[in-house]
Structure formats: structure tokens, C-alpha cells
Backbone:
């Protein structure tokens, strides 16, 4: 939590959530125990900024029918070309704070000085429709999702080297030099969390990394908990 002084109400709640994540309510997620034939998987992807996560996610979603993208809520202003409802739901801090208080988020965190959160409702709807859903969230968000939704599958993306990460950030031309420095510093902290994830993909070659992610999404569909509905139908006919 980097902005303790400037955002007292939200930070108070944030500490509350991160220290006692069992108190985070996922509205409706646990209320309706519908069992679709195949339950959609929740796939979490995290990476240090500049590792190529957005590029990979775009390619992955385009190549994976049935895989949706979880649109997060954020208090950061939209960047050029970003669209409300497609890239993020851009909301005020006041609106974000209200959602936190009402338990609308499965997870939320302060990332690079802005708040970001994943709405429980979206995940529930996708899962119940049997649709896989991808969460592009940071390491703090992943830690919370893991506690709330242990069935989630998670992937950490690493750049091939620190030098290459630095080069990609500079060549992307989207951030000022001080911001790049801040992101590189943050990358040092984030990569320490790689071992908390189920899978690790090194984004050296874009094509190979995309293939690896596709394989992970596909394999997740065959996990036992995802298929409970189908199994029940088959086993029910066995009698005995
Ligand atoms: P992130 O979403 O992780 O911050 P981006 O997807 O914006 O990162 O990628 C950062 C930059 O690196 C972009 O300019 C992108 O085109 C480039 N990039 C991504 N993957 C690769 C790769 N495998 N090899 C070379 N450049 C890459
Ligand atoms: P950006 O502002 O560059 O789109 O994203 C900055 C960081 O915030 C990225 O690491 C991204 O994964 C993370 N992020 C985006 N949405 C969420 C969210 O809903 N929750 C959390 N915890 N992190 C998020």
C-alpha cells in the first residue's frame, strides 16, 4: 500500500482486507451452487510491467474461443485509446471505496499508486456459464484470489532478463524515464513472488510463450473440479 497518507479511508479498508482476507465477501459466488456441465476456469496472469503480459493476453484471448477477459475496476485515468468497459471500468476513488465496503471485490490492491479491483459478480457469471475467464492482476491480487478461490490457475510471466525488460519498457515509449525506473524497481520486488504461481512462462519468444499459455488454458479445462457436472451425469447412469 503505497499511498497511506493520501487515501486514509481506502487504505484502512485495504489493510483490513489484506490482513484478514477471509473477511472479503464474494457476493453471490457462494450463494447459488449451480453446477454447469463444465465449470469455467479462472486463470490469473501476473508479470512485472514490460514483460509482455498485455501483448500475450491479447494473443491468447484471440486464439482461445471460450476464454473471456475479466475487466477490472480502476481509479487510474484512462490512457489514450483505452475504453471504459473494455479495458477497465474507470471509476472515482469514492465509487471504488463504496464497492470495497460493499464487498464487491474478490480482490483489490494499490498498484503504482492507483486502486485496482476484480468484481466477484463477473467471475461468478463466467464460471456459471462455463466460460473460462482471465484475470490480469498483480501479485497482491493473486495472493488474495488464491485464498478466496483456490481452484484458480495462476501463471507468472518472466522476461528473459532484466536488461531485456528495461529495453522493452524504454522501447514501448509509454512511460517517462522516472516512471520506467519505478517500474523496474517494482519488478525486482514482484519477481520474488514467482514461486507462488502454478505455472511460469518466460516470454522470450512471443510465439512460444503464447503457445505455452494456450496449453495452460486448455489443460485447466480438464481439471477435475471443472468437470464435476459432467462426471455426475455419467456416474449417475451407472446405478449400483
Ligand atoms: P506489459 O503488459 O507486461 O507491461 P507489453 O505487452 O506492453 O508489457 O510489452 C512491453 C513491450 O515489449 C511492448 O512494446 C511489446 O511489443 C514488447 N514485447 C512483448 N513481448 C515481446 C517479446 N517476446 N519479444 C520482444 N518484444 C516483446
Ligand atoms: P496498468 O495500469 O498498466 O493497466 O496495470 C498496472 C498493473 O495493475 C498491472 O500489473 C495489472 O496486472 C494490475 N492490475 C490490473 N487490474 C487489476 C486488478 O483488478 N487487481 C489487481 N490486484 N491488479 C490489477
Residues:
Amino acid at each position: 500500500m503505497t499511498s497511506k497518507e493520501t487515501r486514509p479511508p481506502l487504505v484502512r479498508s485495504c489493510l483490513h482486507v489484506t490482513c484478514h482476507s477471509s473477511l472479503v465477501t464474494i457476493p453471490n459466488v457462494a450463494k447459488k451452487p449451480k453446477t454447469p456441465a463444465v465449470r469455467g476456469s479462472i486463470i490469473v496472469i501476473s508479470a512485472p510491467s514490460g514483460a509482455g503480459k498485455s501483448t500475450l493476453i491479447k494473443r491468447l484471448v484471440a486464439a482461445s474461443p471460450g476464454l473471456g477477459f475479466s475487466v477490472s475496476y480502476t481509479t487510474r485515468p484512462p490512457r489514450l485509446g483505452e475504453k471504459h468497459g473494455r479495458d477497465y471500468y474507470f471509476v472515482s476513488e469514492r465509487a471504488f471505496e463504496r464497492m470495497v465496503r460493499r464487498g464487491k471485490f474478490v480482490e483489490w490492491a494499490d498498484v503504482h499508486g492507483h486502486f485496482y479491483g476484480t468484481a466477484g459478480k463477473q467471475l461468478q457469471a463466467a464460471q456459471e456459464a462455463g466460460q473460462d475467464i482471465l484475470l490480469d492482476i498483480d501479485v497482491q491480487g493473486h495472493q488474495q484470489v488464491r485464498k478466496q478461490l483456490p481452484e484458480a490457475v495462476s501463471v507468472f510471466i518472466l522476461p528473459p532478463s532484466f536488461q531485456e525488460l528495461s529495453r522493452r519498457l524504454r522501447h514501448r515509449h509509454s512511460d517517462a524515464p522516472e516512471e520506467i525506473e519505478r517500474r523496474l524497481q517494482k519488478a525486482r520486488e514482484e519477481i520474488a513472488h514467482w514461486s507462488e504461481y502454478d505455472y511460469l512462462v518466460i516470454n522470450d519468444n512471443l510465439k512460444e510463450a503464447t503457445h505455452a499459455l494456450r496449453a495452460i488454458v486448455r489443460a485447466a479445462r480438464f481439471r477435475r473440479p471443472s468437470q464435476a457436472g459432467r462426471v455426475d451425469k455419467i456416474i449417475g447412469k451407472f446405478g449400483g
